[in-house]
Amino acid sequence: MSELVLYDFGNSVCCQKVRITLCAKGLEWRAIPVNLFTAEQYDPKYLKLNPKGVVPTLVHDGKPVIESTLICEYIDQTFPQPPKLIPSDPWQQSKMRLWSKFVDEGLFDGATELSFSAMFRERMRTMPEEIRRKRFRNVGDPRRTDRFKSTYELGVESPFVVHAVAAYERAFKHLEEALGESGGPWILGTDPSLADINLMPFAARLDYLGLLDLWTGSRPNVQRWWAQAQAWPSFKTGLYDLITEHELCEMRTHGPKIRDGISTHLAALRSAN
């Protein structure tokens, strides 16, 4: 019997992708929590598994697999039982991986900046100065440090938040078109794939922040897709059921505080196009 160990942080969008995939494949795993706010991801023992100091990390029979998009593909290829989440047709595979690129090259940073400006910024403001400096220092990637510092100082007016708004606008515009072409209810047609799973946590984060309708209000295909996603058992068990009430409350409390600013950025972006 294979052993699957997931180094996990409950409200991490990247961990949520992996958990949904594990649930969709009907797999069991052992979770080891990694507390990002106390910098457990920089523990030397963890860095041996994941030198980037991020979550998730999946360890399968002692072998670590890192990067959430690659972990999801690894799971589907290693455990071939239905449902198949990577299409067998190469053209459909390329369409599926386009959504991986949307997520990895835009939505990941976007979700981070929106979440940070809404709630994590408030949390860092209440930290002692020494701990806050350590948190910035421990980011590890200078580009991430620049983003976090900008959003910490400027909040929703940070240019990185504007970039986040633009990334989500591109993704949801394309999603509306893709669902129309496929006939739905899923991105590639009748069955869910990693294209859908990759996107689900990033739509969920906007929803729980009370911001999703800013992008979906005029996009009926996306609205139907999101309703379908929320009703999918693997989404519920891999994502929604594992968010604590405190986390939901935090998102629902702080998200509306940035809504006007996000709406202003979105309106300016649309008028410019």
> Order of strands across the widest beta sheet?
2-1-3-4
End-to-end span in angstroms?
Answer: 54 Å
**Helix fraction by DSSP (H/I, runs of at least 4):** 55-70%
Largest sheet: 4 strands, mixed
Number of strands: 4
Mean pLDDT: 91
The run of helices and strands is EHEHEEHHHHHHHHHHH
Query: What number of structural domains do the residues give?
Result: 2
CATH class of the largest domain: Mainly Alpha
Examine the coordinates and then state which fold CATH places here, giving the name of the CATH topology of the largest domain: Glutathione S-transferase Yfyf (Class Pi), Chain A, domain 2
Assign an overall shape: globular
Query: What would you call the structural class?
Result: alpha+beta
Q: How big is the Rg?
A: 18 Å
- Uncertain spans: none
Q: What is the correct CATH architecture of the largest domain?
A: Up-down Bundle
Determine the strand fraction and express it as a percent band: 5-15%
Number of helices: 13
Structural features:
alpha+beta, globular, Glutathione S-transferase Yfyf (Class Pi), Chain A, domain 2, Glutaredoxin, 273 residues, 63% helix
Task: Walk me through the structure.
The chain is an alpha+beta fold. It folds into two domains: 4-78, 3-Layer(aba) Sandwich (Glutaredoxin), CATH 3.40.30; 90-272, Glutathione S-transferase Yfyf (Class Pi), Chain A, domain 2 (Up-down Bundle). It has helices at 13-24, 44-49, 68-78, 90-125, 129-137, 142-154, 159-182, 194-208, 213-216, 220-231, 233-238, 245-254, 259-272; strands spanning 4-8, 30-33, 57-60, 63-66. The chain has a four-stranded mixed beta sheet with strand order 2-1-3-4, covered by helices on one side. Helix 4 packs antiparallel against helix 7 and helix 7 (159-182) crosses helix 13. It is globular, with a radius of gyration of 18 Å. The protein starts with a strand and ends with a helix.
